[in-house]
Amino acid sequence: MAVTEQLFQHDAYLRRCETQVVELLPEGVVLDSTVFYPLGGGQPGDTGVLRAHDGREWRVVGARKGEGGRVVHPLAGDLPPPAVGEQVEAIIDWDRRHAHMRMHSCLHLLGSVLRYGVTGGQITAEKSRLDFDTQEEIDPVRVTDAVNALIAADHQLRSSWITDEELDRQPELIRTMSVQPPRGAGRIRLLEIPGVDLQPCGGTHVASTGEIGPVAVTKVENKGRHNRRVYIAFA
Protein backbone atom coordinates (compact mmCIF):
# COMPACT_ATOMS: atom_id res chain seq x y z
CA MET A 1 0.00 0.00 0.00
CA ALA A 2 1.35 3.41 -0.99
CA VAL A 3 2.23 5.91 1.75
CA THR A 4 2.34 9.60 0.79
CA GLU A 5 5.22 11.69 2.08
CA GLN A 6 3.53 14.78 3.49
CA LEU A 7 6.00 17.55 2.69
CA PHE A 8 3.90 20.26 4.35
CA GLN A 9 4.65 18.70 7.75
CA HIS A 10 8.26 19.82 7.38
CA ASP A 11 7.76 23.04 5.39
CA ALA A 12 4.30 24.63 5.29
CA TYR A 13 5.58 27.24 2.81
CA LEU A 14 6.20 24.77 -0.03
CA ARG A 15 3.83 25.68 -2.83
CA ARG A 16 4.70 22.95 -5.33
CA CYS A 17 6.64 19.72 -5.71
CA GLU A 18 7.64 17.19 -8.35
CA THR A 19 6.01 13.88 -7.55
CA GLN A 20 4.84 10.57 -9.02
CA VAL A 21 1.42 8.97 -9.28
CA VAL A 22 1.51 5.71 -7.33
CA GLU A 23 -2.15 4.69 -7.25
CA LEU A 24 -5.49 5.51 -8.85
CA LEU A 25 -8.57 5.18 -6.67
CA PRO A 26 -12.23 5.87 -7.49
CA GLU A 27 -12.05 8.90 -5.19
CA GLY A 28 -8.82 10.34 -6.58
CA VAL A 29 -5.08 10.12 -7.24
CA VAL A 30 -2.48 9.02 -4.69
CA LEU A 31 0.99 10.57 -5.01
CA ASP A 32 4.28 9.41 -3.51
CA SER A 33 4.77 12.90 -2.00
CA THR A 34 2.57 15.97 -1.80
CA VAL A 35 2.32 19.59 -0.72
CA PHE A 36 -1.49 19.25 -0.43
CA TYR A 37 -2.77 19.31 3.15
CA PRO A 38 -5.63 16.79 3.54
CA LEU A 39 -8.84 17.72 5.33
CA GLY A 40 -8.48 17.23 9.08
CA GLY A 41 -8.42 18.91 12.47
CA GLY A 42 -10.93 21.52 11.34
CA GLN A 43 -8.65 22.69 8.52
CA PRO A 44 -9.92 22.26 4.94
CA GLY A 45 -8.03 20.19 2.42
CA ASP A 46 -5.93 22.14 -0.05
CA THR A 47 -7.04 22.81 -3.60
CA GLY A 48 -4.81 23.35 -6.62
CA VAL A 49 -3.64 21.53 -9.74
CA LEU A 50 -1.61 18.58 -10.91
CA ARG A 51 0.37 19.41 -14.06
CA ALA A 52 1.98 16.89 -16.40
CA HIS A 53 5.18 17.64 -18.31
CA ASP A 54 3.20 17.71 -21.60
CA GLY A 55 0.93 20.48 -20.31
CA ARG A 56 -2.10 18.41 -19.27
CA GLU A 57 -3.59 19.80 -16.08
CA TRP A 58 -6.05 18.47 -13.52
CA ARG A 59 -7.91 20.50 -10.91
CA VAL A 60 -7.57 19.12 -7.35
CA VAL A 61 -10.77 19.94 -5.49
CA GLY A 62 -9.73 19.16 -1.91
CA ALA A 63 -7.18 16.67 -0.65
CA ARG A 64 -8.32 14.00 1.81
CA LYS A 65 -6.74 11.38 4.03
CA GLY A 66 -6.81 7.81 2.77
CA GLU A 67 -6.00 4.53 4.44
CA GLY A 68 -2.51 3.67 5.58
CA GLY A 69 -1.01 7.16 5.39
CA ARG A 70 -2.14 7.92 1.86
CA VAL A 71 -3.24 11.39 0.75
CA VAL A 72 -5.94 11.24 -1.93
CA HIS A 73 -6.25 14.06 -4.47
CA PRO A 74 -9.79 14.19 -5.98
CA LEU A 75 -9.81 15.54 -9.53
CA ALA A 76 -12.45 17.62 -11.29
CA GLY A 77 -13.33 17.50 -14.98
CA ASP A 78 -13.52 14.81 -17.64
CA LEU A 79 -9.83 14.54 -18.56
CA PRO A 80 -8.53 10.99 -17.93
CA PRO A 81 -6.32 10.99 -14.80
CA PRO A 82 -2.54 10.71 -15.01
CA ALA A 83 -1.26 7.15 -15.23
CA VAL A 84 0.38 5.25 -12.40
CA GLY A 85 4.11 5.95 -12.63
CA GLU A 86 3.64 9.30 -14.36
CA GLN A 87 5.58 12.30 -13.07
CA VAL A 88 3.50 15.39 -12.31
CA GLU A 89 3.93 18.71 -10.57
CA ALA A 90 1.62 19.27 -7.59
CA ILE A 91 0.75 22.96 -7.07
CA ILE A 92 -1.46 24.30 -4.28
CA ASP A 93 -3.67 27.41 -4.33
CA TRP A 94 -1.25 29.38 -2.18
CA ASP A 95 -3.40 32.35 -1.20
CA ARG A 96 -6.09 30.03 0.15
CA ARG A 97 -3.56 27.84 1.99
CA HIS A 98 -1.78 30.84 3.48
CA ALA A 99 -5.09 32.16 4.81
CA HIS A 100 -5.69 28.77 6.44
CA MET A 101 -2.21 28.89 7.99
CA ARG A 102 -2.84 32.35 9.44
CA MET A 103 -6.26 31.33 10.72
CA HIS A 104 -5.07 28.05 12.25
CA SER A 105 -2.24 29.77 14.10
CA CYS A 106 -4.68 32.45 15.27
CA LEU A 107 -6.98 29.80 16.74
CA HIS A 108 -4.09 28.56 18.86
CA LEU A 109 -3.75 32.10 20.20
CA LEU A 110 -7.48 32.29 20.82
CA GLY A 111 -7.28 29.05 22.79
CA SER A 112 -4.38 30.40 24.82
CA VAL A 113 -6.49 33.42 25.82
CA LEU A 114 -9.61 31.37 26.58
CA ARG A 115 -8.20 28.52 28.67
CA TYR A 116 -11.17 26.19 28.43
CA GLY A 117 -11.54 22.79 26.84
CA VAL A 118 -12.16 22.96 23.09
CA THR A 119 -15.19 21.01 21.91
CA GLY A 120 -15.06 21.85 18.21
CA GLY A 121 -13.73 24.19 15.57
CA GLN A 122 -13.69 25.11 11.91
CA ILE A 123 -11.28 27.01 9.69
CA THR A 124 -12.02 28.86 6.46
CA ALA A 125 -10.06 31.45 4.54
CA GLU A 126 -12.44 34.23 5.66
CA LYS A 127 -13.38 33.38 9.23
CA SER A 128 -12.95 30.61 11.78
CA ARG A 129 -14.40 29.49 15.07
CA LEU A 130 -13.70 27.53 18.22
CA ASP A 131 -16.24 26.05 20.62
CA PHE A 132 -15.32 26.19 24.31
CA ASP A 133 -16.57 24.10 27.19
CA THR A 134 -17.60 26.89 29.54
CA GLN A 135 -20.63 28.61 31.05
CA GLU A 136 -18.80 31.89 31.50
CA GLU A 137 -19.64 34.95 29.44
CA ILE A 138 -16.95 35.92 26.93
CA ASP A 139 -16.19 39.58 26.23
CA PRO A 140 -15.42 39.96 22.48
CA VAL A 141 -13.55 43.23 22.95
CA ARG A 142 -11.28 41.89 25.68
CA VAL A 143 -10.52 38.72 23.72
CA THR A 144 -9.86 40.69 20.51
CA ASP A 145 -7.38 42.91 22.33
CA ALA A 146 -5.62 39.95 23.97
CA VAL A 147 -5.26 37.99 20.73
CA ASN A 148 -4.02 41.03 18.79
CA ALA A 149 -1.44 41.69 21.51
CA LEU A 150 -0.07 38.16 21.01
CA ILE A 151 -0.04 38.70 17.24
CA ALA A 152 1.80 42.00 17.58
CA ALA A 153 4.39 40.38 19.87
CA ASP A 154 5.49 38.33 16.83
CA HIS A 155 6.07 35.07 18.69
CA GLN A 156 7.86 32.33 16.75
CA LEU A 157 6.10 29.00 16.14
CA ARG A 158 8.03 25.75 16.48
CA SER A 159 7.27 22.14 15.63
CA SER A 160 8.62 19.04 17.32
CA TRP A 161 7.69 15.38 17.59
CA ILE A 162 6.91 13.09 20.51
CA THR A 163 5.92 9.44 20.71
CA ASP A 164 2.45 8.16 21.53
CA GLU A 165 3.80 7.00 24.89
CA GLU A 166 5.23 10.43 25.69
CA LEU A 167 1.87 12.03 24.95
CA ASP A 168 0.13 9.49 27.17
CA ARG A 169 2.32 10.69 30.03
CA GLN A 170 1.34 14.33 29.33
CA PRO A 171 -2.45 14.26 28.79
CA GLU A 172 -2.66 17.95 29.78
CA LEU A 173 -1.23 18.80 26.33
CA ILE A 174 -4.49 17.78 24.66
CA ARG A 175 -6.89 20.75 24.62
CA THR A 176 -9.45 19.35 22.19
CA MET A 177 -12.18 17.33 23.87
CA SER A 178 -13.95 16.09 20.75
CA VAL A 179 -10.98 15.05 18.59
CA GLN A 180 -7.90 13.16 19.75
CA PRO A 181 -4.51 13.42 18.02
CA PRO A 182 -4.01 10.64 15.46
CA ARG A 183 -2.05 7.73 16.90
CA GLY A 184 -0.51 4.62 15.46
CA ALA A 185 2.20 6.20 13.30
CA GLY A 186 4.68 6.10 16.19
CA ARG A 187 5.00 9.84 16.65
CA ILE A 188 2.81 12.92 17.08
CA ARG A 189 3.60 16.47 16.03
CA LEU A 190 3.57 19.23 18.64
CA LEU A 191 3.10 22.90 17.83
CA GLU A 192 4.68 25.31 20.31
CA ILE A 193 4.34 29.06 20.65
CA PRO A 194 6.94 29.49 23.41
CA GLY A 195 5.44 30.91 26.55
CA VAL A 196 1.98 30.98 24.97
CA ASP A 197 0.75 27.57 23.82
CA LEU A 198 1.86 23.95 23.39
CA GLN A 199 -0.35 21.18 22.03
CA PRO A 200 -0.51 18.40 19.44
CA CYS A 201 -1.42 19.68 15.98
CA GLY A 202 -0.93 18.32 12.48
CA GLY A 203 -2.10 21.47 10.67
CA THR A 204 -0.12 24.03 8.71
CA HIS A 205 1.00 27.22 10.45
CA VAL A 206 2.82 30.49 9.90
CA ALA A 207 6.39 30.97 11.09
CA SER A 208 5.55 33.78 13.52
CA THR A 209 2.39 35.32 14.92
CA GLY A 210 3.05 38.71 13.32
CA GLU A 211 2.28 37.11 9.95
CA ILE A 212 -1.34 36.57 11.01
CA GLY A 213 -2.22 40.26 10.90
CA PRO A 214 -4.93 42.01 12.94
CA VAL A 215 -8.07 40.04 13.75
CA ALA A 216 -11.38 40.62 15.50
CA VAL A 217 -13.78 38.45 17.46
CA THR A 218 -16.92 39.01 15.39
CA LYS A 219 -19.46 37.01 17.38
CA VAL A 220 -19.90 34.88 20.49
CA GLU A 221 -22.80 32.43 20.49
CA ASN A 222 -24.33 30.44 23.33
CA LYS A 223 -24.59 26.94 21.82
CA GLY A 224 -25.67 25.16 25.00
CA ARG A 225 -25.25 25.17 28.74
CA HIS A 226 -21.54 24.36 28.48
CA ASN A 227 -20.68 25.68 25.03
CA ARG A 228 -19.61 29.12 23.86
CA ARG A 229 -18.85 29.47 20.15
CA VAL A 230 -16.35 32.21 19.32
CA TYR A 231 -15.95 33.46 15.75
CA ILE A 232 -12.83 35.29 14.59
CA ALA A 233 -12.03 37.02 11.29
CA PHE A 234 -9.26 39.05 9.75
CA ALA A 235 -9.74 42.71 10.61
**Any idea what the CATH architecture of the largest domain is?**
2-Layer Sandwich
- Approximately what portion of the residues adopt beta-strand conformation? 35-45%
The CATH topology assignment of the largest domain is: Threonyl-tRNA Synthetase, Chain A, domain 2
Structural class: alpha+beta
Bulk shape:
elongated
Rg? 19 Å
**How far is it from the N-terminal to the C-terminal residue, by CA?**
45 Å
Which spans of ≥5 residues are poorly predicted at pLDDT below 50? none
Q: Tell me the count of domains.
A: 2
Major beta sheet, specifics? 8 strands, antiparallel
Q: Mean pLDDT, nearest integer?
A: 92
CATH level-1 class of the largest domain: Alpha Beta
Write a compact overview of the structure shown.
Helix content is 16%, strand content 37%.
What would you say this structure looks like, in words?
The mean pLDDT is 92. This protein folds into two domains: 5-92, Beta Barrel (Elongation Factor Tu (Ef-tu), domain 3), CATH 2.40.30.130; 97-234, Threonyl-trna Synthetase, Chain A, domain 2 (Threonyl-tRNA Synthetase, Chain A, domain 2). It is 16% helix and 37% strand. The longest helix has 20 residues, at 94-113. It is built from three helices and 17 strands. The chain has an eight-stranded antiparallel β-sheet, with no helix packed on it. A four-stranded antiparallel β-sheet has the order 11-12-17-16, covered by helices on one side. A three-stranded antiparallel β-sheet has the order 13-14-15. A hairpin with a 3-residue loop joins strand 14 (188-193) and strand 15. The chain is α+β, with helices and mostly antiparallel strands. The chain has helices at residues 94-113, 140-152, 164-168, and strands at 5-6, 16-25, 28-31, 33-34, 48-52, 57-60, 64-65, 71-73, 75-76, 87-92, 117-123, 127-133, 158-162, 188-193, 197-200, 215-224, 227-234.
